[in-house]
Specification:
Layout: E1 2-7, H1 14-24, E2 27-31, H2 50-53, E3 58-59, H3 72-88, E4 92-96, H4 100-108, H5 118-130, H6 134-142, H7 144-149, H8 155-168, H9 172-177, E5 187-193, H10 197-213, H11 216-225, H12 240-247, H13 253-276, E6 281-284, H14 291-313
Parallel strand pairs: 1-4, 1-5, 2-3, 2-4, 5-6
Helix pairs in contact: 1-14, 3-4, 6-8, 10-13, 11-12, 12-13
Length: 314
């Protein structure tokens, strides 16, 4: 069965293109942005507005409370269920988002790693707080191969990798080599947006400033007033952690915006690097909202779907 993936760096227009393809090819969109899963986190995640969400059915948006934690395996299970339901209705699943690891987890399977150990994670976080850089040094000792692939400042991934090494008593790289079953019965067309770097940087800056003008700090205040603790996982993400620091008086508004733009540009670069390592990718050199990009995407999807029609005729 056919499945479309619309991926790429942040601010490249993935949501717009996914909706346009879903409209044209009788599809439904499955969100693959790890933060758009959370209710209440709207502005900082660039969640499509209600009028856009109403254009086609969307799945896996606003499905978690901020207190709930999710990961690639959890998302992949939910996404597989959504994809099967969409196909069962005779419609085309369109996966949209920039979390490349989640896409891989769905299409290729995921290592069956050990469950999270809250007590261990607390101890690791405490050691990292007392001695910055501890997690990366520990991982270099336990699993040099995995440590080389994770940025020293990416504490979430470092914590999980170290946790796997300690609980499984084996390097995380070896655990990852044993994969959970992939989504069966589907073939994916992976479209990855790749706008010119300078234009993407400008788009990131403009969008970040628009988020702050559009009420990102006020959104964070509403979430806090509603009882969402500052330690909630979504508050660790770009834009939200800076807005939280601004509200708490630890950072000026100007500095918060500046750091959000810098961090988002760095994140976009990492996303492009990730997808360059993926196999079978069809690159689209432009923004998803650009007319030429849309035409190229529609042509690729048409050819892809025609292959399935030909197979049925045979």
């Amino acid at each position: 069965m056919p499945l479309i993936v619309v991926a790429g760096p942040t601010a490249s227009g993935k949501s717009y293109l996914a909706i346009q393809l879903a409209l044209e090819f009788d599809g439904e969109v499955v969100n693959c942005d790890s933060l758009q899963l959370y209710r209440g986190f709207d502005i900082g995640t660039a969640k499509p507005p209600p009028e856009e969400l109403a254009l086609v059915p969307h799945h896996l948006i606003d499905v978690l409370d901020p207190s709930q934690e999710s990961n690639a395996g959890h998302w992949a299970r939910m996404a597989a269920a959504s994809v099967n339901q969409i196909t069962g209705r005779g419609r085309l699943p369109v996966i949209a988002g920039g979390t490349g690891f989640y896409v891989r987890a769905l299409l290729e399977g995921l290592a069956p790693g050990p469950e999270r150990d809250p007590a261990l994670r607390t101890r690791l976080a405490s050691r990292e707080e007392r001695r910055p850089g501890f997690l990366h040094r520990l991982l270099r000792h336990l699993d040099p191969a995995t440590a080389a692939r994770i940025h020293p400042n990416d504490l979430n991934k470092l914590t999980r990798a170290a946790e796997i090494c300690i609980v499984a008593r084996s390097p995380a790289s070896e655990v990852f080599a044993s994969r959970r079953a992939a989504l069966e019965g589907y073939r994916a067309l992976k479209l990855v947006l790749n706008p010119p770097r300078e234009a993407l940087c400008r788009a990131i800056g403009s969008r970040t400033e628009a988020m702050w003008r559009g009420g990102l700090p006020e959104e964070v205040r509403r979430l806090l007033d509603a009882g969402v603790p500052p330690e909630a996982k979504p508050f660790e993400s770009l834009g939200y952690k800076e807005a939280l620091a601004c509200i708490q008086g630890r950072m000026s508004r100007e500095r918060a915006i500046e750091l959000t733009i810098i961090g988002t540009r760095q994140y976009a670069k990492r996303q492009i690097t990730w997808f360059r390592r993926e196999s079978g990718v069809c690159w689209l050199d432009g923004f998803g909202s650009a007319g030429q990009t849309g035409l190229a995407a529609r042509a690729l999807v048409t050819t892809f779907l025609n292959e399935f029609t030909s197979m049925k005729v045979r």
